[in-house]
Amino acid sequence: MPINEYGPHGLRNSGSGFEPQLTPVATTDAQALREAFGRFPSGVIAVCGMLDDRPLGMAVSSFTSVSLAPPLVSVCMQTSSRTWPKLRQLPRLGLSVLGEEQGAVCRALAGAEEHRFAEVHWETTGEGAVVLPGAVTWYTCTLRAELPAGDHTIALLEIDRLWTLPSAEPLVFHGSRFRRLDGDRSTVPA
User: Residue 56: which pLDDT band, with cuts at 50, 70 and 90?
Assistant: First the structure.
């Protein structure tokens, strides 16, 4: 009997001893799709800038490195966001990769816009980007392009400068909860 064969639910590995029970769900089921997307752990990023001498920002979990030359990253925002249309007009944005102790900061940045920075410590760069102390990495960026993508907008940002704290651990979002990375820094075999 071959190790990989097709069963009623598609390709399966009969040699592993583990055969998951798959339940197909229509991709139009928004809650099921949200739960499926939530199975992929991600970091949490604060996207912030100065508007009228006040910090403005939001938390996003869709952040991806794109290119080394030129240095590009992408973030995705819901098209219903009232914050992104204001941020996108700013000449510089600060991206802060939140640290494992910044769950409260993330919740604040996901709350009502007028109260987001009430209890959040922040700093501004000379160009108007806002970064958050306690983050593991900071980037200052310029918006280069936007792409409509369903109910989101993909923003392509070019990195101007960055700072990083190599010993700091990131905040991880998975399964609708904040989690910590395992402290064991040993290498996992490929």
Answer: very high
